[in-house]
């Protein structure tokens, strides 16, 4: 029996402290884990309070009708979604939204990439031009839009410049086509500097040796751009495209300040239509339903772009 007890004592693992005392609860590993959770707690709490809970409330409100003026709040089931399917204005709103988004994305990304390629050259004064192109990004959106509103009027600065060369400019914000184009151009000039900086950073990370080897092989500038530059900066192209597409679907201030959705409904995009239904006509339940539609559109487009990365983004398999 004594031999068995001695064998068990030898086989038993030694006490972690070695002195018979209990192991402390707040070990170094637990302290590090707690510190990590404390660091992410503000972001996690903000996401829950300002993203997840409001998103859940929007879905809940979409099944109710809330009349603030009458003080009534009642459940209506799927009536708001049936009204959405039968809304005669919705197809026009979606067309205006698609036209605005496509125009903004194409012009923004194209101009940003062209500016980045030019500013990536070793040219005198490139730093000054980088600052000039990026400065609208940090300007107040409302102030920027108000200034452009004055410039785009019939007797505004743009038409005054056209008069100097004998051209009679239109009232840019009162034509169905010119108003949408004007809003797109204002938004492009406002945010093109951000994408330009992202593209410029990506271009500066492309190894120069690849261009030199391609030049030796006889590749011209256009071929080097398509075969070397575009594949290597494709992750940045994906990032900027997602940011720009999502931003184009959430535009509001420019429409509210410049055109108020007019003339007619030619510039009434989905976000502005949502605002009208909820805060002008006090149809909060229907406004929440439009918010759900906007959320689904953004979600689908983002997922499609993310899945397409495997086909054209460099380093993706």
TrEMBL record:
The keyword Transport applies. It comes from the Bacteria. It holds the Pfam family BPD_transp_1. PROSITE patterns: ABC_TM1. It is a multi-pass membrane protein. Residues 94-305 form the ABC transmembrane type-1 domain. It is found in: Cell membrane. The chain crosses the membrane at residues 37-63, 98-119, 131-151, 180-203, 232-257, 284-304. The lineage of its organism: Bacteria, Bacillati, Actinomycetota, Actinomycetes, Kitasatosporales. This is Sugar ABC transporter permease. Belongs to the binding-protein-dependent transport system permease family. Residues 1-24 are annotated as: Disordered. Its main location: membrane. Keywords: Cell membrane, Membrane, Transmembrane, Transmembrane helix, Transport. PANTHER family: ABC TRANSPORTER PERMEASE PROTEIN, INNER MEMBRANE ABC TRANSPORTER PERMEASE PROTEIN YCJO.
